Amino acid sequence: KNTNGFQRTPPPFVYLFTMSFFSDIMAPGGGVLLLPFVKVIVGLLLFTTVTIFICGVARIHMAILSFLSSGLLFSLYMFENAYNTVKGRTSSAKSTPSTEGMGRAGEKTD
């Protein structure tokens, strides 16, 4: 409650956007929506660990953390490429009509 006794509520559009985004993430396969955010965070981690390594603070630890974060960033890029490839195949397969069960030029296959 606020000091004047009224309860403060967020504007409806903020609530709807937040709930819509949250429900999209929690839906099956929704974690892919977080890939850009995760890549930025891991990239910042890599930048930070490399910078601290260059400054000379805890060199061996920063070298190991830099190696691990670069491997994680690389694997995220590989996963995203594979996901986009599969997603492209399934969308093109849905758009082309299936010729299963049909012979040559209207020939019966029964």
Describe the fold and architecture.
- It is a single chain.
- This protein has 110 residues and is mainly alpha-helical.
- The chain contains three helices and no strands.
- The radius of gyration is 25 Å and the shape is flat.
- The mean pLDDT is 81.
Average residue-wise pLDDT: 81
Oligomer: single chain
Helix content: 55-70%
**Quick one: biggest sheet?**
none
Measured by DSSP, the beta-strand proportion falls in under 5%
Cα-based radius of gyration, to the nearest Å: 25 Å
Order of helices and strands: HHH
Task: Break the fold down into its secondary structure elements and pairings.
Layout: H1 12-26, H2 35-55, H3 59-95
Helix pairs in contact: 2-3
Write a short abstract of this structure.
The chain has helices spanning 12-26, 35-55, 59-95. The protein is mainly alpha-helical and 110 residues long. The chain is flat and about 75 Å long.
